[in-house]
Design a protein that fits this description.
The chain is 0% helix and 45% strand. By secondary structure, it is mainly β. Strands 2, 4, 5, 6, 9, 10 and 11 form a seven-stranded mixed sheet that branches. Strand 5 and strand 6 form a beta hairpin. The relative contact order is 0.32.
């Protein structure tokens, strides 16, 4: 069982920035495609961004392109999400997820692709 622990959430004003982290003790972290999702109450998980195992490929949802940046440090077993120019509509609980998928497929935006999930971290953007 892969345990993922998110951190870095908080309250920020519109236009501000936050950096989320997702850490794991899993030594095979570099074997997982990783993704960030977010969820607001009463709605399904929304895909935000995914990154391939070596970090060479990424896929962003349109609403965060140019504002969010995903990265990973496989030596530290940690995934990051740098969020800039935050908007109130970015308010959500953010989850990191790990997929055992052998390749970076066109399905990385779906929750079914992922095998392990963190507990989530709240991001609140005030207007």
């Amino acid at each position: 069982q892969v345990q993922l622990v998110e951190s870095g959430g908080g309250l920020v004003q519109t236009g501000g920035s936050l950096r989320l982290s997702c850490a794991t003790s899993e030594s095979t972290f570099n074997r997982y495609v990783m993704g960030w999702f977010r969820q607001v109450p009463g709605k399904e998980h929304e895909f935000v961004v995914a990154i391939s195992r070596r970090g060479l490929r990424t896929y962003y949802t349109d609403s965060v392109k140019g504002r969010f940046t995903i990265s990973r440090d496989n030596a530290k077993n940690t995934l990051y999400l740098q969020m800039n120019n935050l908007k109130p509509e970015d308010t959500a609980v953010y989850y990191c997820a790990a997929s055992k998928a052998p390749v970076f497929t066109s399905m990385v935006h779906t929750t079914q692709t992922y095998d392990y999930w963190g507990q989530g971290t709240q991001v609140t953007v005030s207007s």
